[in-house]
Predict the structure.
Amino acid sequence: MEICCTHNMDLIAQTLESNFVQLQPASIHGVFWLQCHFPQQEWDALIGGKAAFTTECMHHLAHDADIAGVTVEWRTSIQSQ
């Protein structure tokens, strides 16, 4: 028997090169949270996962999301040498 533990994430952040983090919603709660924090003209890019923020800005967003009970998974890629 295989036991799998899954965590329902509301937002997924992926560290990109150049000190930017791509953010995309992973649940309806993530979508609602984004809509509460950004103007309507930015919703299409945010909901489509096309928004990127500086690492410093993403730290602030992740902290604010955590306070609101919104779960954030922040993936970081490490390049091997």
User: Anything to note?
Assistant: Residues 35 and 43 are 7 Å apart (CA to CA). DSSP finds three helices and four strands in the chain. Residues 1-6 have pLDDT under 50 and may be disordered. The beta strands are 11-15, 20-25, 51-54, 72-75.
